[in-house]
Design goal:
It is a single chain. By secondary structure, this protein is mainly alpha-helical. Helix content is 60%, strand content 3%. A two-stranded antiparallel sheet has the order 1-2. α1 packs antiparallel against α3. It is elongated.
Length: 144
Amino acid sequence: MSYDPPPYPPYRPPDSSPSYDTYPWVPQREPEPAGRHTRRHAPLGQHSDLRLLRSAYRWQRRVATLTALGYFVLFLLLSAFAPSLMTGTVTDGLPTGLLLALVQVPVTWLAIALYERTARSRVDPIADRIRRQTALDAKREGAL
C-alpha cells in the first residue's frame, strides 16, 4: 500500500480563522508572478502517471515473484505431504521429485522472462512518458 500526499493546498476548514494558514508547518504558496503561464497538468509529485507507474511496477513484481515462489512452494508441499508421489519414478531411475526439482531452473528463467516482458510492455512506457514530461517541464521552467 502506498501513501499519496494530500492534494495541495492543504484542507482548510470552512469556518476557520486566518491564523489557520500561519502555522509554521503549513507550506505557504508563493504568489504567482504576473504574466506567467499556468501549467496544463498537475505538478510531478502529484501526477497520476506516477501512481500508474507504481501500480504497474507492483503488478510486475507480483507476477514474477509468484511465478518463481509459487512453483517452489508447490514443490515443497509435494515433498512434505506427498512423499509417495515424489519417490515414484517417471522413467528408469528418474524419481518424480528429482524431475520437479530440475524443472525449478526453467521456471526461474520463466519468471525472469515474465519480469522483462512486463517491464517492456507496462512499466517502461509509463516511465518514458514521465521522463519526457519532466524534461519538457524543465525546459518550460528554464524559458520562463
